[in-house]
């Protein structure tokens, strides 16, 4: 004969089940975050000095903004593999890439392209910051084809972009279905170009 429980007993059992469920979910989140931070540490050990900022996203979940100063050669396959594993993690919200003491050399641009090609393969990155890297027309010819297609926002401000760069930029942007905003400010545009770029952003928001 099935045992019947009082309403109070049922409520206690239900509350205990909820507590156990929340504790299990918290453990999964903590484990996932621990694994993510362990990969960051591993990347640092491979001479890629990645810094992370923990944030709370609008939906209340936890995310991380990563900054990758390109201070060392990213040539080893192990470096590329660890970087790919990190940016594939759903905890990653935004990646900022900064060129370092290599200046505006072609070597540094190709290194930047290697990192971007990794991000492109992942196809989950939503926000990318390439501001203040001195990017010019030649750089965009290399970088345009490997920009991640999953982006929602892209920051190209404070570079050395001009009208000659627009072809490489717009070709890449047309392949980003979720793109909603591009920061084009503080570049070397002619007087009328910023107005056209503002109109471009307005059209993006209508998508």
Notes on the protein architecture:
With 207 residues, this protein is α/β, with parallel strands linked by helices. It has a single domain (7-205), classed as Alpha-Beta Horseshoe (Leucine-rich repeat, LRR (right-handed beta-alpha superhelix)), CATH 3.80.10. It has helices at 7-45, 77-87, 106-122, 137-143, 166-173, 193-205, and strands at 51-56, 62-70, 92-99, 127-129, 153-155, 181-183. Helix 2 crosses helix 3 (106-122). The protein is globular. 22% of the residues are buried.
Short description:
With 207 residues, this protein is of the alpha/beta class.
Keywords:
207 residues, alpha/beta, Leucine-rich repeat, LRR (right-handed beta-alpha superhelix), six-stranded mixed sheet, 6 strands, 46% helix
Strand content: 15-25%
The CATH first-level class comes to: Alpha Beta
| Overall shape | globular
Query: What would CATH call the architecture?
Result: Alpha-Beta Horseshoe
Count the E strands: 6
Structural class: alpha/beta
Low-confidence sequence ranges: 20-30
Mean of residue pLDDT? Answer: 76
CATH topology: Leucine-rich repeat, LRR (right-handed beta-alpha superhelix)
Distance between the first and last residues' Cα: 62 Å
Helix content: 40-55%
Order of helices and strands: HEEHEHEHEHEH
Largest sheet: 6 strands, mixed
Radius of gyration: 22 Å
Strand order of the largest sheet: 1-2-3-4-5-6
Q: What's the domain count? A: 1
Total number of helices: 6
